[in-house]
Amino acid sequence: MKENSSETLEQKHQNQPLDSAVDELNLAEFPLAAISDRFLDGTKTVVLEDTVFDREQNKYLPRRLTLSGSDRYGLPTSKDDDVLLACIQLSRLNDFATREVTFSRYEILRLLGWADESRNYERVATSLRRWKGLSIFSDRAFYDHEQKSWVNRDFGVFDNLVIYRREVIQGKAAPGCSRFVWNEVIFRSFQSGYLKQLDWNLYCRLTSPVAKRLYRFLDKRFYHSSRVEIDLLELGLRKVRLAANYNNAQMKRSLLKGIEELEHVWELKPRLPEERFQKSGSGKWLVIFERRAKRSRTAISPSVTSAITAESIAPLIQPAINPQNLERELVKRGIGPASAEELSLSQPSNRISEMLELYDWYNNRGQPRGPGFLIQSIRNPSAIALPPGFESSIQRQERQQAKEAQKQAESNVRTKRERLALRKQNSRQRAFMAFWEAMSPSEQEVFETEALEATDTMKKRLYLEASGKGGRAFEIYRQMVLKDQFERTHEIETECSLLFRAD
């Protein structure tokens, strides 16, 4: 039994790699599904409790998440968690545009890598109905990203669900008409961006449900710190959802199976069990996780080194850009973690920054571009024509720097002219004083009489008006008249004039 063909799914995935999946942060923190199938024994309700710090009241407050399943289908388990994550990816491929998502179960099987078999079609249908029947009662256990606070919410996962069950007709899959409608509370969380990137290929390769749950939880916590310390009971009961009747030893054994898998395939730093679990008190244990250090940003492979050009060296003279920040920004825009790391290692930081801004520029103006465009523009910028009206922050910075440099150059010219003018004035003053002091009083008197007769009418009038009063005003006008006469009667070249000629 098959539903729709893979053409629609392949078209959706054309520019969106599978490893660019997303996870909702509430679901990564508080699992809605158990780690095993134990709830198939008829248990219909489970309560998860811990504490959360309330900034307004400045104290820790209890929070509680109550999950209640339907009588027929019960509570979700680990396989159902996989199906719900696949549904999130189906909605993401549509950019979370609408609450209603049309799909075929074949799409979900393909996303999860499950075999195209009748029993898996039935398994997907059961999972979807289990999620439809789940009621969630949250007391400060659901974070509202819009309100920036933990809030009380009572809601479900799906409001409506239609599963198309038509068999294959004449060897062709019938059109996929299945659809689900997200509950408004969860969908608003999607649209508000309360999401984190999820390496989908890695997630689907994990074989242990414990490893999958730990990967989602630790990947969220590692965003803020490369080291996570958490109480064993808190981790086992409320984050991984192990059986409530497990003792400490059983919890450690169950967790170690998933931990060892993550140590082999992910960035979880290996530790011996006695280092992983450390006693913190009577009957209390801490579980310690560390993220393995990523490759050195300076240790570039020879193949990358051969591609280094003047353009890639140019960012070295620009303000430093943290490659890890660039990697994080690439992942936010749908590029898989592995590809984001490779780009941040091999491509110039300034180019990545510019193309990130170009990508956002298009999408903010209703001209959507996918991750494929962003990768291509970073790898081959010469093939990308920058649109009119777009100016990157680097271009703005360069333009501003050029403008400031021009202002500084003009200021330097003015300063130089003012300095030279002052030197010229001082040089003239020294020449005049040497001339004046070399004359006898009678010669000075004759020179002053000649100067007064030769000066212009305005200076002569000021001189005569001030002569009767004396004081500083008269001395200023007298010096003006005398210096003018000195320069008229002596052809001199001051050191300042020589400097002007040299310029």
Unreliable residue stretches: 4-17, 167-174, 295-320, 492-503
Number of domains: 3
User: What's the alpha carbon Rg, rounded to whole Å?
Assistant: 39 Å
| Strand line-up in the sheet with most strands | 2-3-5-6
Mean pLDDT: 81
Helix content: 40-55%
Folded structure, characterized:
This protein is of the alpha+beta class. Helix content is about 50%, strand content about 15%. It has 3 domains: about 1-190, no CATH class; about 300-390, no CATH class; about 420-500, no CATH class. The longest helix is centred in the C-terminal third of the chain and has 45 residues, at about 395-435. The radius of gyration is 39 Å and the shape is elongated.
Write the layout of secondary structure elements.
Blueprint: H1 7-13, E1 21-24, H2 25-29, E2 45-54, E3 59-68, H3 78-93, E4 100-103, H4 105-112, H5 118-132, E5 135-144, E6 149-156, E7 158-162, E8 178-182, H6 184-191, E9 195-198, H7 200-205, H8 209-221, E10 227-231, H9 232-239, H10 248-265, H11 273-276, E11 277-281, E12 284-290, H12 302-305, H13 310-313, H14 323-332, H15 337-346, H16 349-364, H17 371-379, H18 393-437, H19 441-454, H20 457-467, H21 471-489, H22 495-502
Helix pairs in contact: 3-4, 3-5, 4-5, 8-10, 14-15, 14-16, 16-17, 18-22, 19-21, 20-21
